[in-house]
Fold each of these.
Amino acid sequence: MIQKAISIGLAGNKLSKKITGINAVSAGRMLVATGTGAALGAVAAEGTVAICACALGASSAPVTIPLALASAIVSGIASRF
């Protein structure tokens, strides 16, 4: 999960640069990067876990929330550099 969170977080950072049109460090881009990383992490977790969760009748929240949170943190940190 850590490797996935890092790659998703870095993708969120790159996407934040395209959304804001800014490559420089700023508080606004950090917020966009964090939100984008969280959204990408949630979508990625839902895609990989949904099939297993349906088959087992279990909730995907135990995987979705940590991946989204970790991706958001990585995106936020990456946006500061």
Amino acid sequence: MTLKGTRFHQQIVAIAEDYLGPSGPRFIDRLAENHLGKPTTRLTPADLNEIVKWARLAAAMLTDDAALVAEFMARLEELSSSKRPGKRLAIPPARQSLA
């Protein structure tokens, strides 16, 4: 996981890596810079709705597996609550990741 950015950024990247592998950090960094117009060092929980919006759109372009995209977004959305983000659900081998 990348160490740059805020703790919030690191949490988002950890989730993205579960679905995108080593491309997760770049996916989130580019999303923040290109769609939110801010460096990852300035990401906060207030940005979560926009992050999820853009991540959903991008992830849907990478796969036809709507359930996998929904799971990815649900885990990101959990960052807005007081509970810790859940672990990735068991997924059949054919649906292991977006990467």
Amino acid sequence: MGNGINHNAGGGKTYHCGASDWIDNSGLGEADFGAEDWATIEQARAEDWEIKKGTQYIQTSGKWEGEFSVFRARLDLDAICKKHDIYQDM
């Protein structure tokens, strides 16, 4: 995939946060994260894992497994995934 570019969601659009899928599928739970990280995860979950208007996020696009794909992630969840080595083969 290409290099990530920071964006600020606007225009009333919402996007799914791709980092949330990695967190959900990581097998990690509350005990694996610090209190601050877990609070961020719980807040994102309460917001249905969406990137809402005004939320900063990273966007990466390109071919993934032969198909064009766009990956978007909230900056806070992206940082948690990187901190805890949740992303694999990315």
Amino acid sequence: MVELKKPDDPVQLGKLENKLNEYIGELRNKKKENPGVSYNDLLNTGSGYKAMVLGKVMFNEIVDTDRLAKDLERKINGFDRITYNSAVDDVGGYINNEGKNTIGGTGY
């Protein structure tokens, strides 16, 4: 089980909020580029999973990512566990070490 916990540091929280907004922006751009894409297909992407995981952390403070995966498997047709696990790793990297070990992406 991987558990992600919302940090207490207000500076880091601001950075995480910006990161969440970045993920949401990526989803909006994907929707603009392809207006016919389904909500399910948007969520079933790296950006979709990252937005869901980070949003849950920011709202709930602690997230059991295995439990969340099981919930998403029931809700998202074609749930992609590999992409989800990668998203959890990325979000965990930002939460636990401010993205210092994250390869690629836009960083903080």
